[in-house]
Design goal:
The structure holds two protein chains of two kinds. By secondary structure, chain A is an alpha/beta fold. Chain A has helices spanning 22-37, 56-70, 83-92, and strands at 2-8, 11-20, 43-54, 76-79. By secondary structure, chain B is an alpha+beta fold. Chain B contains five helices and five strands; from the N terminus they run βααββααββα. Chain B has helices spanning 15-27, 34-55, 89-93, 109-116, 149-153, and strands at 2-10, 63-71, 74-81, 119-124, 130-137. In chain B, strands 1-2-3-5-4 form a five-stranded antiparallel beta sheet, with helices on one face. Classes of the chains: A alpha/beta, B alpha+beta. Chain A binds chain B through residues 19, 21-23, 25-26, 29, 53-57, 59-61, 63-64, 82-84, 87-88, 91-92, and chain B through 13-14, 16-17, 34-35, 38-39, 41-42, 45-46, 49, 52-53, 103-109, 111-112, 115-116.
Chain lengths: 102, 157
């Protein structure tokens, strides 16, 4: 599991790659928060192009980050989930909190 | 024809990755679509995560058993533990319910299993622990035939 961040057009892009299960969440949680704390930005886009797997542990992780950002008034969005990950987002209603781009 | 697999291992953090991969690989003989395979792997991952996080609460030397069986076009999967059991199964299955609300848990594990599989039953074992049983019919173009002897030699010359 890998996580990286970059600023593009005023947005913070957080790129997740690998498998975001219980163990994956524990591996990236602190780094995710460190990335959120180290830049100035108006919105956050979680890019899942390289994410091959996610289960509901990942939903817990994302909601945790969403709450931190919400308290600062910063919106969060999801980009490029694969079809199974997209299905988890749809059944969980998470797109109501963090919309899918595109 | 019936096919089966039995895996018993210690339920350490990280076993969810190889157990879902093993069951995914076992199902390949049903010729699943990528989406069907993703559904099965995700459901297994949810069940195994429940065992690691809730049933055994992080103690990593306890045993988990994952059984798979293929009959006709359907895969039957059991995930069995010998942990603390579930006091109220109906409540545990409710979407967004979690017994560990301080840990950033979504409470969606059973909801995902229910949605991604055709059937789900959850029961406390008489001797302790929980059995989660799931089935899924694969859109089935038939069970892949065993390769003939000639096929096995292709590329090996």
């Amino acid at each position: 599991m890998k996580i990286d961040g970059k600023i593009e057009g005023g947005s913070l892009h957080v790129m997740l790659s690998g498998e975001l299960d219980e163990q994956g969440c524990r591996l990236v949680r602190a780094k995710f928060d460190a990335i959120l704390d180290s830049w100035r930005y108006g919105s956050v886009i979680v890019d899942m192009t390289e994410l091959s797997f996610m289960d509901s542990s990942g939903i817990g992780l994302l909601i945790g980050r969403f709450k931190r950002l919400k308290s600062r008034g910063i919106p969060m969005m999801i980009a490029n989930p694969n079809c199974t990950v997209d299905k988890i987002f749809r059944i969980s209603g998470i797109y109501n909190l963090m919309p899918k781009l595109g | 024809m019936k096919h089966f697999v039995n895996i018993e291992t210690n339920a350490t953090l990280g076993c969810e990755a190889y157990l879902r991969s093993c069951i995914g690989a076992f199902c390949v003989r049903l010729n699943p679509t990528l989406e069907e395979l993703g559904d099965i792997k995700t459901a297994v991952s949810e069940a195994v995560t429940n065992v690691v996080v809730h049933a055994y609460r992080g103690s990593s030397d306890r045993a988990i058993v994952v059984r798979g069986e293929i009959r006709d076009c359907t895969v039957y999967i059991d995930v069995v533990d010998r942990g603390c059991g579930i006091p109220d199964i109906e409540q545990a299955r409710r979407a967004f319910y979690t017994s560990a609300s301080t840990d950033e848990r979504s409470g969606l594990g059973f909801t995902v299993m229910e949605t991604f599989m055709d059937s789900l039953t959850v029961s406390n074992n008489p001797t302790g622990g929980v059995t989660v049983s799931m089935t899924k019919k694969i859109g089935c173009y038939g069970v892949a035939p065993l390769p003939s002897e000639g096929d096995l030699c292709v590329g090996a010359q």
